[in-house]
Amino acid sequence: EYSAEYQAQALIDIAKKLNKKIYNLNQIKKIDLHTSHHTHYVIGTGANDPQKMDRKANRETLDHSIMYIFAVALEDADWHHVKSYTKKRANRKSTIRLWKTIKTHEDKKWTKKYHEPDPKKKSFGAKVVVTLYNGKKIIETLDRADAHPYGARPFKRENYINKFFVLTNEILNKKESSRFIKTVQSLKKIKSGQLYKLNIQVSKK
């Protein structure tokens, strides 16, 4: 669902910002994510699901572990829908160490923002507190993902088109993906007998 995706993306954006602020990630003692009820109990430590902290967990489980997602994004200052979930990536020792330091906490303020009926005020963000071994705390807060319609850098049409190309890179050949985008861009001109053009032909492996 979109809310879960926005929630994860907001924390990925925070992780990228913290990556630039923290010179040595080995100095991190613990990371506390203060966020909504949904994040804490569904994809956070509040779910009490040991698999969310297991390096051997499958992609579907890791996709629902905000602790894993945050750890990888903090290390890489990036996130990839395939590369960030590989077994090799999940088994990196430095990632596992960071992963184990992360805990989520429900904050009623964030839960209220999460359920805000006004879309302009609705928030999928969090406050992250990173505590270093020397006692220093680094805090980063973000109400919503940068790409959110009301975020710092809302996605524009070209961003969505580029995301389509990225997600289908190894599924469709360039000719087919370009044809599909061209068709979608000209929906108003498509006649009833041409709706088949909205189907896509997947590349043969």
Distance between the termini: 30 Å
Q: What series of H and E elements makes up the topology?
A: HEHHHHHEHEEHH
Q: What is the β-strand count?
A: 4
Number of helical regions = 9
Beta content comes to 5-15%
Give the gist of this structure.
This protein is α+β, with helices and mostly antiparallel strands and 205 residues long.
Please write out the topology:
Elements: H1 2-21, E1 28-35, H2 37-43, H3 59-62, H4 66-76, H5 87-90, H6 93-101, E2 102-106, H7 108-114, E3 126-132, E4 137-142, H8 157-167, H9 174-185
Parallel strand pairs: 1-2
Antiparallel strand pairs: 1-3, 3-4
What features would you describe in this structure?
- The protein has helices at 2-21, 37-43, 59-62, 66-76, 87-90, 93-101, 108-114, 157-167, 174-185, and strands at residues 28-35, 102-106, 126-132, 137-142.
- The chain is an alpha+beta fold.
- The chain has a four-stranded mixed beta sheet with strand order 2-1-3-4.
- A hairpin with a 4-residue loop joins strand 3 and strand 4 (137-142).
- Helix 1 packs parallel to helix 4 (66-76) and helix 4 (66-76) packs across helix 6 (93-101).
- The protein is globular.
Q: What descriptive keywords fit this protein?
A:
globular, 13% strand, 205 residues, four-stranded mixed beta sheet, 41% helix, alpha+beta
